[in-house]
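I hope you will forgive my troubling you with a question about protein structure. The record follows directly beneath this note:
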Amino acid sequence: PPTETVTPAPAIPPATPVPVNSRTQYTFFVNLDYAAKTVAVNETIKYFNATGQSLDNIVMAVEPNLWSNVFALTSLDQDGIAITNYSLAGQRLTIYPAQPIQPGAMTAFTLSYGLTLPAKTYEKTFGYLGYQINLTDWYPFIVPYSGGWMLHDPWSFGEHLVYDAADYEVNVKVSDPKVIIAASGLAEANGDWTRYTVVGARTFALSASDKFKIVESAVGSAVIRSYYFAGQEDAGRAVVWMATQALGLYGVKFAPYPYPSLSVVETEVPDGREFDGLVFLAEKFYVEYNGTAKSNLITIGAHEIAHQWWFGLVGDDQTIEPWLDEAMATYSEKIFYEYNYPNYGNWWWNFRVNYFGPSGYVDTSIYNGGTFRLYTNAVYLNGANFLNELRTRVGDEAFFAFLQDYAARFSRGRATTYDFFSVLRQYTGADFSDIMRRYFQNQY
């Protein structure tokens, strides 16, 4: 599969982040029938061809179509004219416009479709539970183009989708007024609709329940909300405090928090899952919460929130180079404890990393990592070992200056491993080639 190998010029932001007015814009009108577990959607995509190529086809990812009898496309048009020449197979929707889309041209696609939601499985976030509906990767979106369309095959674990940053306006109506919605953006009234907006995001997620309890906080202008269920009050409050600590710290150490709000949502999953402005944490973490930061609730919470920077703000091909967001989010946990709970540093290393005795190359893809345990040991945990050794070698001043510049250069863009090391070498003259040889199978 194609991957980007853009190397930025020294001290000049790369061309990867496109100007705001050329980002793809998604506008949705969503009717959610909570009791029937169905969704009716009208979606408009304003697409600016920033590829530099003439495009005779457009590829969208349609994740709900990986389930049987879930996604039903009822209409598809381009600039008001019905499109008949398209194919939908599995997750891939390929559209063949009547005329190629020229470089620099803007066009609009409008889709109407229904979702008959599936029962949520433990490993996935998408679908319904008896008390909750999660809409994640629920809409068709145009995948990135880099010498070809970047849509990778699904795998049994890891994230296979690659996203461009885009602007979202999501208008929602819910059948039941008792249903509370957690979303990637802040709510405002728009006539009969509730409108959520977020700019420069890769995903837009929603979670709906008539059982949600909410605790709120804020860091600067960012609103933080913890959505949890009855009986988990202590954990629900602990989450909002952890999120407040994380946004405050990461906002100083990495870059300002990129979104207007953050929703942390309890659901039934094995651990956690990140989306822009919204993260899920496992129900069992709330149930098992012991009242201290020595817990999965706080550790994995700090990890998923770090993905707002390493995945959300700074994108990557998380299929081929997942370490760029997963190792970074794991090491961000270490930074979280270092600054907020300095006495828990040894505990974190033993609890999260050393216990598993991780080995394996950090630059492993989701496809060649072996089992999920071996994959996470290599990419997440050995990735944290690598970043810690790297930080020790180059020193804190260079390490954190590098992180800030890296985040700024690739803000709303997409970085590669080559980009990571290209920027790093501008901040240090230290030789870390021996560390690289131990942790990476390829040279960068």
Q: What stands out?
A: Confidence is low (pLDDT under 50) at residues 1-15. Residues 372-394 form the longest helix (23 residues). The domain at 323-439 is CATH 1.10.390.10 (Neutral Protease; domain 2).
